[in-house]
Amino acid sequence: MSDIQVRPATLRDAKAIAQIHTLSAQSAYQGIVPEDQLKSMSVDKRQAYWREAIEYCEPQVQVAVEDEKIVGFVGYDRSRDEKSRPTTGEIWAIYAAPTHWDKGVGLALWDAARDGLAEEGCTNVTAWVPLRNERAIRFHELAGFKREMTTAKTAVVGSAKIEEVRLKRSLN
């Protein structure tokens, strides 16, 4: 396995993060999100979002780097769920470039997010995942997350309705 380093994202990383986010989402959501929706995903819009996130640290963003090239990223912070405890963190986004799926990038990013959330005083962490995204659910379950089926909800992404479930685990 190659040597993957994880470090805090800088503003210069926003474009690479946006490209990975777009490419990865287009691959991961094939058959889940309508084709026209996938094709309309914009690197520019995502770049603006991630630049702002990096600048204001909301969420905190870290990147996985291999041979000086960004191959994945994670965004994490306190939970955005209403009525969640202040000690609950959330993985807002975790993506690896499709060329780096199943190569340890996600695990390296998860380890960095877990450490960052623990440093912030979080004792639990959640993630919202589309029910039909079996790859993402399997990843989170291998990382110790458990499905909270009573949390299933419908998210609207453009014109598509996607069923999501919250996964949760302890940081201890």
Report on this model:
This protein is an alpha+beta fold. Helix 1 crosses helix 3. A hairpin with a 2-residue loop joins strand 2 and strand 3. A seven-stranded mixed beta sheet has the order 1-2-3-4-5-7-6, with helices on both faces. It is globular, with a radius of gyration of 15 Å. The two termini are 28 Å apart. It has five helices and seven strands, in the order E-H-H-H-E-E-E-H-E-H-E-E.
Topology at a glance:
Blueprint: E1 5-8, H1 14-28, H2 35-39, H3 43-56, E2 60-66, E3 69-78, E4 88-96, H4 105-119, E5 124-130, H5 134-142, E6 146-157, E7 160-170
Parallel strand pairs: 4-5
Antiparallel strand pairs: 1-2, 2-3, 3-4, 5-7, 6-7
Helix pairs in contact: 1-3
End-to-end Cα distance: 28 Å
Summed over residues and divided by their number, the pLDDT gives a mean of 93
Tell me the strand order in the biggest sheet: 1-2-3-4-5-7-6
Q: How would you classify the helix and strand content by structural class?
A: alpha+beta
Strand content: 25-35%
Taking the sheet with the most strands, its summary is:
7 strands, mixed
- How much helical structure, as a percent, in the residues? 25-40%
Rg of Cα set: 15 Å
Sketch the topology as an H/E string, one letter per element: EHHHEEEHEHEE
Individual helix count:
5
Pick out the low-confidence regions. none
- The number of distinct β-strands equals 7
Q: Estimate the global geometry from the Cα principal axes.
A: globular
Task: Give a nutshell description of this structure.
With 172 residues, this protein is of the alpha+beta class. The chain is 34% helix and 35% strand.
